[in-house]
Specification:
Largest sheet: none
Radius of gyration: 18 Å
Order of helices and strands: HHHHHHHHHH
Shape: globular
Strand content: under 5%
Structural class: mainly alpha
Helix content: over 70%
Length: 196
């Protein structure tokens, strides 16, 4: 990760010099650097980078651009990890709205923040709303992605968690068995995603 950090920081410095600190490509590079910090759990470093990227993208591309939607989803992830679930949910809702306007309500880019919003609803104990969001995400992905895509298994795995929380254990068992079969077929029996 240190090598990746060095390369991302170097790339960012070049972008800032060549394009200026507020150029959209500079903001996207900053977003990538924030993503590394996010991955490493260094949220205090990731958050201000995401926030600056968001501000620059909104100013340069407008508040309804897909890059803004992606940055909002990234910032929501950090906020959720830092315990600010309400802010994260608001950002995901905004991200969903932008994706729906930019790409249509049935585009796979809508499904990803829907899934993340559902996970936050689940964590808050709102299983009914989480279930509705997951069902919508699953329907979108079934249309947009090839059969057996790993993201479909991830969404169905989340649906199984809701089934367990609601006490629908037979349904949860069937969902988990389907997820396992998909992951074994697509990823293989030794893949980490298959194991979890």
């Amino acid at each position: 990760y240190e090598k990746a950090r060095h390369l991302l920081e170097r790339s960012q410095a070049i972008r800032e010099t060549a394009l200026g600190p507020h150029h959209p490509d500079t903001a996207l590079g900053r977003n990538n650097l924030a993503g590394l910090f996010d991955l490493l759990g260094e949220y205090d470093q990731a958050k201000p980078l995401y926030e600056q990227s968001l501000a620059d993208l909104e100013k340069s591309l407008g508040p309804r651009h897909p890059h803004v939607a992606a940055c909002l989803a990234n910032l929501a992830s950090v906020d959720a990890s830092m315990g600010d679930v309400q802010a994260a949910m608001a950002m995901l809702e905004r991200s969903i709205g932008i994706w729906e306007q930019a790409r249509g309500p049935e585009n796979e880019d809508v499904a990803r923040p829907l899934h993340n919003l559902a996970l936050l609803q689940y964590a808050q104990g709102d299983y009914a709303q989480a279930g509705k969001l997951l069902e919508r995400a699953r329907r979108i992905l079934e249309t947009a992605l090839p059969e057996g895509h790993p993201l479909l298994a991830t969404v169905e795995n989340s649906q199984a968690a809701i089934s367990v929380a609601e006490g629908r254990l037979a349904l949860a068992k069937a969902q988990n068995e389907h997820v396992l079969a998909l992951r074994e077929k697509v990823l293989g029996p030794r893949h980490l995603e298959t194991a979890i």
